[in-house]
Amino acid sequence: MNKTLILVVEDDRSVQNLMITTLKTHDYRYLTAMNGEEAILEASSHNPDIILLDLGLPDMDGIEVIRKIRTWSNVPIIVISARSEDMDKVDALDAGADDYLTKPFSVEELLARLRVTERRLAAGPGEQTSSSVFVNGKLRIEYSAGCAYLEDEELHLTPIEYKLLCLLSKNVGKVLTHT
Ligand code: CA
User: Fold this and answer.
1) Where are the beta strands (DSSP E) in 56-164?
2) Cα–ligand 1 centroid distance for 91 (angstroms)
3) Cα 58 to averaged position of ligand 1 atoms, centre (Å)
4) Rounded average pLDDT over 52-69
5) How far apart are the first and last CA of the chain?
6) Distance between CA 145 and CA 147 in Å, rounded?
7) Per residue in 79-132, pLDDT tens?
8) What global pTM score does this model have?
9) For residues 72 and 171, is the Cβ–Cβ distance under 8 A?
10) d(CA 167, CA 88)
11) Residues pairing with 9 in the sheet
12) At 48, is the pLDDT very low, low, confident or very high (cuts 50, 70, 90)?
């Protein structure tokens, strides 16, 4: 059974549905985000294995999303762009995207890109593991388990509190905006 967790970032419902249906029928696990803010929050709190990222998002440029995620994570990002956004695609690769798909794409093409990325993940050194636990003083966060501890005692956080803690922990020393 395929346990790869995919974060699907796409504001176009029909494209999102196509991707989700494809992932479901091929036993992938998935998360969804409709905009950039959600994408960053989901990526920081759930540590997906692969991110499928639409470049044309309602709240911010997809390239901005890549830059933000790249400040703490090497997660493979596959950019999805319309043909008219060809220059954006180049910028996206420069910003740290790993691969791209051009709309409209076929289901087979999507699956092929995912397989290539998975092979790369399997072959690479376990660079994900170093970032799966965060320790700062008495605070410890185990991202993969979704648990946080203070002096080895588990913290009981609401999902929003946990997401905020993850986001803050991945931006140590930085000032974050309210949103
Ligand atoms: Ca879009």
Assistant:
1) 77-82, 99-103, 133-136, 139-142, 147-150, 153-154
2) 17
3) 7
4) 95
5) 37
6) 5
7) 998 877 678 888 999 999 999 999 889 999 999 999 999 998 888 765 444 467
8) 0.69
9) yes
10) 26
11) 33, 53
12) very high
Q: Which two tokens stand for residue 101?
A: 């798909």
Residues in contact with 126: Cβ distance below 8 Å, sequence separation at least 6, in sequence order: none
Structure-token pair, residue 168: 């803050």
Mean pLDDT score, 173-179: 79
Pairing of strands 153-154, 147-150: antiparallel
DSSP character for 149?
E
Tokens of 121: 């993940």
Cα R_g (the chain), whole angstroms? 16
| Polymer length in residues for the chain | 179
Question: Ligand 1 centroid to 26 CA: how many Å?
Answer: 24
- pLDDT bracket for residue 163 (50, 70, 90): confident
